[in-house]
Specification:
Helix 5 packs parallel to helix 7. It is elongated and about 85 Å long. It has a domain of about 55 residues. It has eight helices and four strands; from the N terminus they run E-H-E-E-E-H-H-H-H-H-H-H. By secondary structure, it is an alpha+beta fold. Strand 2 and strand 3 form a beta hairpin.
Amino acid sequence: MSQLWILSPTVSDTILAGFGAILNLENWVSGVYFMPPSLKAAIIAIHQLPRTPETLWLRILGKGNVQKQAIAELRELPSDNVFRLNALELLYNLRTILEARQDIDREDRELIMELSPLYLQRIEDATQEGIQQGTQRTKRLMVESMLQVKFGEIDGELTQIIEPLLQLEAIEFMRLVMQLDRPELLARFKPQNQPES
């Protein structure tokens, strides 16, 4: 049985009564009103939803203080929380759309202001992640280049010791690659679960 879900930031008692919408608190939370069965529809009054993690997605779509509270809750989630990451991605898109509009009203401007610190944090995190990835890539290229210069082709055995070498400081892995011969390097850095050849 299909159901039409009508989301509304706010809804008055008069409108709910006009549609014959009633609460079903036995199976649903407050703020969810069902119309008569023949209409197969329900109204979600976002401003009446309880402050729970399950309603956070919907409360973000609210207005005013309801939306501000939901964004604050989102901000408090751990930075690696999948829900947080997905919600922020959608909010960044919304922020971009709102900024591109010519006729921004006061509420939209306030929403942009609320989202700006989160957006700037995302940019900073992405920048730091990019720097770390670039540093690791450069370090890997250094290790691979040194092994290739000293031993020629990097075969399967040498490939296995690249990761352990990357765990060292640059000066340390450079010293070891320069000082040790191939059997010494392999003996020192070969993973423990690898059988001897």
